[in-house]
Amino acid sequence: MKILVTGGTGFIGSHTVVELQEAGYQPVILDNLYNSNKEVLTGLKAITGRDTPFYEIDSTDEAAVRKLFETEKFDGVIHFAAYKAVGESVAEPLKYYENNLGSLIVLLKVMKDFGVSNFVFSSSCTVYGQPDVLPVTEDTPRQPATSPYGNTKAISEDIIRDHVYAKPGLKALSLRYFNPVGAHPSAEIGELPSGVPSNLVPYLTQAAAGLREKLVVFGDDYDTPDGTCIRDFIHVVDLAKAHVKALELLNRQPETNFYDVFNVGTGQGNTVLELIETFERANGVKLNYTIGPRRPGDVEKIWAQSDKANSKLAWKTEKTLEDSLRDAWRWQQKITKG
């Protein structure tokens, strides 16, 4: 089966390409390289031993996407391509709505016209906002988003649901990610943000490598054991494998016009300070960090209950937080050395 992976040179997308190939799928990458690097293709080949077809296309460009679907016959689509920085989305909301919603609508239209039925959407636990009860399940009510980025994920889920309800022949799943961290154990691919990282772990590893003066922890006065935010940190390889399981479920699903959502997390919450301590312990590195003010748009605490994914997707996490932070540091050391 040939699977289009939009955003396939990005952090989660590239790891999913590896897992798709190992599971016998043929991934094809679409990416505009806005927040990724074409050198990722070299890392993918080093891991898999083969070249992955790559098209430098913006997924909001409907004409270019249509031409790609005419060139390649796809059996499914995994849609990662989206802007994802919470802080930037607060500052530039229109940029996020235009890109994140526009790319989704283009893909759904083109998939319908070309009769491609299997669709896996990269969603986020941000749709839960700040939940009243933890851990969150898929039945936890969605709260008003705390950022435009989070709102694009909630609106995207609604667009997919409404589209499926209109009976276009689509089978779709939304995977609500928690906090992906780590890198491939080979250190051939990992998180490679352009400019200043917006995610915690690449900023942390850059600070540990001396590329940043220090790590700033945003707030230590939250209602948590040590005052810092709590997140569910999941190894990116475990997350990538969930996409393979999602495709398998869609392939088994006899009903067209089908839609469901899944939490993809470890079920374990860790504070930011716990993450820092775990990184230092796992790698024998002392980190220079300081406490700063709270950051707009941040949720205080959230972690998953992933029982539904465990049972219906036959998926579960295999790697620990220590594994994630060792792999992230190994990746950072490789790219720092060049």
From TrEMBL:
Q: Which GO terms describe its molecular function?
A: UDP-glucose 4-epimerase activity
Q: What is this protein called?
A: UDP-glucose 4-epimerase
Please report which protein family the annotation says this sequence is part of: Belongs to the NAD(P)-dependent epimerase/dehydratase family.
Instruction: Give the top-level enzyme category.
Output: isomerase
The reaction(s) this protein catalyses: UDP-alpha-D-glucose = UDP-alpha-D-galactose
Instruction: State the gene name recorded for this protein.
Output: galE
Q: Which UniProt keywords apply?
A: Carbohydrate metabolism, Galactose metabolism, Isomerase, NAD
Q: Which residues form the NAD-dependent epimerase/dehydratase domain?
A: 3-265
Top-level taxon? Bacteria
User: In what pathway does it function?
Assistant: Carbohydrate metabolism; galactose metabolism
InterPro entries reported for this sequence: Epimerase_deHydtase, NAD(P)-bd_dom_sf, UDP_G4E
GO cellular component term, pick one: cytosol
Q: How does it assemble?
A: Homodimer.
Pfam families attached here? Epimerase (PF01370)
Xref: CDD domains: UDP_G4E_1_SDR_e (cd05247)
A biological process (GO) of this protein is: galactose metabolic process
Cofactor field: NAD(+)
What EC numbers are recorded for this enzyme?
A: 5.1.3.2
